[in-house]
Amino acid sequence: MRLRHPDGSTVHLGYCTNVHPAEDLPGIVAQFDTYAVPVRERLGVPVLGLGLWLAAPVAAGLAADRAAVHRLRAELTARGLEVVTLNGFPYEAFQAPVVKHAVYHPDWSAPERLRYTLDLAEVLAQLLPEDARRGSISTLPLAWRTPWDAGTRQRCRTALGALAGGLAALERRSGRTVRVAFEPEPGCVIESTTQAADLLGTVDTERLGVCLDLAHLACAWEEPRDALRRLDAAGVPVVKVQVSAALESTDPRADAEVLRGYVEPRFLHQTRARHGLATDDLDEALSTPDGGPWRVHYHVPLHAEPIPPLRATTGVLSEALTELVGGPAARCDHLDVETYTWGVLPPARRPSTPDELAGGIAAELAYARELLTTLGLTHTVEATR
């Protein structure tokens, strides 16, 4: 959906479709009818934005077939849906047996990652609404932290130069601006805004910047105001924001039994204490004597409390949005709700039908919209159809 900031600009709020991924074009369109249209109707808005996820083979096929992209755009328009941002973090869907680290491969030292991202940019330039200022693509923060050596770093730097050049060429050819946003994440080469400032401060910041995932920001125990000042000082723009909340325990030893209910085999749930503890998964953290408090990289629904006594880091989310869009000018105009863990939540919190999932997504978006309206944004902007 579109919101009007007091500065007169349009702020796009949507949700990321990796919560219900499909691996081919017919499957993607079917998901529009199963989830996105019901979400839009529940919210009562004429147009709903999607942070679309396209697997690498789908992106490559679309990039080579303009007619197919035009058909996809027509399918979106017919349903009151639009796309200004893509999620380019997962390269392909998780396959069984699940290897949790697979989502970080190929990384930015591999040529496949560059090809995939440029394919996404080609597709997005054609999907963008005519009146959209620009598009954005979120991607992984270069690589998992190991192995990371001088050669890997140089290959990544070379790839980022080629990426910026490809985006510039696309803009000259299409007249559309697409920016790529690197998403700091626990366990990766870029985990914090300090690392983002260090590794991205010398790239082409007209086209490259960060995707600030607010659950990741919380897990890094970063204060939103300080984090944004750090990025500003390095000249690194916030291209996109993932509106998300992490799981928090103030006393993990006392909460251990409840926390075990969030251990699951599909995704990594990196766990960070305010001081000291840093593990790559929640079960590993639970085997340590650390007393916390902990924050766990587990995206939880924005509108619903986790199983007590656990909490969600919605306080960090609120503070960050205040800094980003609560001032006289919007510092980011692409906001994406990204709770991809609905399918692995503990049974008491997990939706059992597509209709329940659509209702949960709609409730999250309503929560985010309400928070943004308290910051002065108004829901008065309609898309050009």
UniProtKB/TrEMBL annotation:
Spans traversing the lipid bilayer: none
Superkingdom, natural source: Bacteria
InterPro entries (UniProt xref): Xyl_isomerase-like_sf, Xyl_isomerase-like_TIM-brl
Keywords, sorted A to Z: Isomerase
Record flagged with keyword Cell inner membrane: no
GO molecular function: isomerase activity
Occurrences of domain Xylose isomerase-like TIM barrel (ranges): 64-253
Name recorded for this polypeptide: Sugar phosphate isomerase/epimerase
Native species: Catenuloplanes niger
